[in-house]
Amino acid sequence: MPKPDLIGPLPGSTPTGETPSRRRTLPPDLLREASHRVSVMALLGGTLWVIGVGADHLAMRALNAPGWARPDVDDVIGLVVVALSLALYGYSRKKERDPEFILNLGLGYMVLTGVGLGIMMHWNHIPANTEIFPMISWIGAVVLMFAAILPTTPWKMFIAGFIAVTMNPVGMLIQRARGDWDFGAGALLLMHYPDYILLGVAVVISRVINRLGQQVVKAREMGSYQLNELLGKGGMGEVYKATHRMLARPAAIKLIRPDKIGDLGSRELLVKRFRREAEAAANLRSPHTVELYDFGVTEDGTLYFVMELLVGMDLETLVRQYGPVPPARVIRILLQVCESLEEAHAAGLVHRDIKPANIHVGRLGLRYDFVKVLDFGLVKPIDTETSGHSLETAAGRTPGTPAYMAPEMAMGETVDGRADLYALGCVAYYLLTAQLVFTAENALQMIARHLQHEPTPPSERTGVPLPAELERVVMACLAKRPEGRPQSAKELAARLAAIDVEPWSESQAEAWWGISLQHPIA
After folding, report:
1. Of 291, 310, 305, 308, which Cα lies nearest the Cα of 223?
2. Where are the beta strands (DSSP E) in 257-316?
3. Nearest to 494 by CA among 421, 433, 423, 405
4. E strand segments, 334-472
């Protein structure tokens, strides 16, 4: 059984008082992306060494040079560098590797490349009367290329680059010691000083990239939080892992960019509405509602929510990876969602986008299969005025998700908590069958089916018997008119709790998560 996705690492995995901005020049996600370039460069470098050495032998053969097929020093050096390239490629491809260490290995690989090139360029005999003139060698080009591709601190680039470009003078000294080239002392500087100029350019490039990385870190600061790796993105924005500057507590931050919330003329109204809705969501205290730590608006107009960082997966991932969920476990999940919705509805809030992707299940402390309802920052107050819009509708989006949208919401009618119960019925259907209530080729067809078609009972879709009362409750939630559904989350919870099935126990939940966590995803 594969391992479930972890939306975030275990709380406390970031050392106290040590934020990523203090330890790295780039956020972790960008640092990992940069470290991936090391594996690409290692593979490319090894390939070029093979091509270069092979092309040299072919050229010697074309010129009918004696001994063109015999191995020489160039072949030995090439073989060593190719082996090191493949080793670095294989090592850096492992996901658990520290990206910063991989970047340091990349600098080491650059130095070893310089050693190989320096020896190769100055190994063969050169006549004593050969004219010496300044030249840019392959080592200088390699240092420049690494500086542009691998972000690192200027001093690291200077030290590694200086060692690399010095391999040319060292190669000349080795050549002189072997008696293959007799040159004057000034030739060491004259011949390869252009490489040291390129080293200076490489240090400047590293400094520029380093500053850009610091600007990225600063740009990702949201209030007292520092954005780190990207966890996911959707139509309304992105979600990042974040760290508080003073606390060890990790968090998740959802960003809604200015281009997602309308033009400049409506932005002030949107910000006011955002604050009102966020404040309402922040006051929800159900343990099954994701906790909202903070919210705000940045200077560029980006809206952000700071939420607790969760360990586990959403229900969509659960079904996609593991298939239909046992009825007893479905009841346990739905009861927890009902507790969250009951408080929200009592506070006058309708979620309006209940769907598997917005319901998280995982571990909280020592409790397993603990449910958290997400995205309460985009709720809509219950309002009888049809002109009222939530943040999402003001941004030009149809509220809700068509596959889980109540008919009255699709028709633009006034909605209340019973619309969330319809969506929760769709979620229950999906958990039991691993199929949507209706299938359609596009959003309009999906909405039309929710308006006009009667759903097939879930047991008929799967051919697997289900508890009759559970099926009746699910079908009641899917009634076209709100009057035909349970009239509150409390009523729905009572009906679910009364179903005569063996409960999904805490020990079963713990055993399921324990087995799953032992098998990584392929």
Report:
1. 305
2. 292-297, 303-308, 311-314
3. 421
4. 349-350, 359-364, 367-373, 380-381
Grade residue 516 by pLDDT with cuts at 50, 70 and 90: low
Q: Give mean pLDDT, residues 464-480.
A: 94
Q: Does position 391 have pLDDT exceeding 50, yes or no?
A: no
4 in Cβ contact with 518 (< 8 Å): no
Q: Is the pLDDT of residue 311 over 70?
A: yes
pLDDT exceeds cutoff 70 at 105: yes
Tell me the three state secondary structure of residue 360.
Answer: strand
Q: Where in the chain is the domain with CATH 3.30.200.20?
A: 221-308
Catalytic residues: 353
Annotate 298-314 with b (16+ C-beta within 10 A) or e (fewer): eeeebbbbbbbbbbbbb
Q: How do residues 25-80 score in pLDDT, each as one tens digit?
A: 566 666 777 778 888 888 888 888 788 777 766 776 666 666 656 666 777 887 88
Q: For the domain 221-308, what is the CATH code?
A: 3.30.200.20
Prediction pTM value: 0.60
pLDDT band at 210 (very low <50, low <70, confident <90, very high): confident
Angle, vertex CA 168, rays to CA 85 and CA 210, nearest 5: 60
- For 521, the token pair is 């995803």
- Within its chain, how far is the Cα of 521 from the centroid? 16
Please state, as a whole number, how many other Cβ atoms lie within 10 Å of the Cβ of residue 104: 17
HSE value, Cβ hemisphere, 13 Å, CA-based, for 170:
14
What's CA 16's distance to the chain center, in Å?
23
Residue range(s) of every CATH 1.10.510.10 domain in the chain: 313-517
Calculated CA dihedral for residues 62, 65, 71, 76, nearest 10 degrees:
-80
Tokens of 228: 């780190």
Instruction: Give the lowest-confidence range in 277-286, 293-302, 415-424, 429-438.
Output: 293-302
State the CB neighbour count (10 A cutoff) for residue 361.
26
Please tell me the class of the 313-517 domain. mainly alpha
Q: What spatial distance separates the first Cα and last Cα of the chain, rounded to whole Å?
A: 10
222 three-state secondary structure: strand
- Cα dist from 394 to 234, 241, 397, 434, whole Å: 17, 27, 7, 33
Alpha-carbon gap, residue 396 to 61, rounded angstroms: 69
Does pLDDT of 233 surpass 90? no
Contact 464, 392 (CB under 8 A): no
Query: Residue 427 and residue 422: Cα distance in Å, rounded?
Result: 9
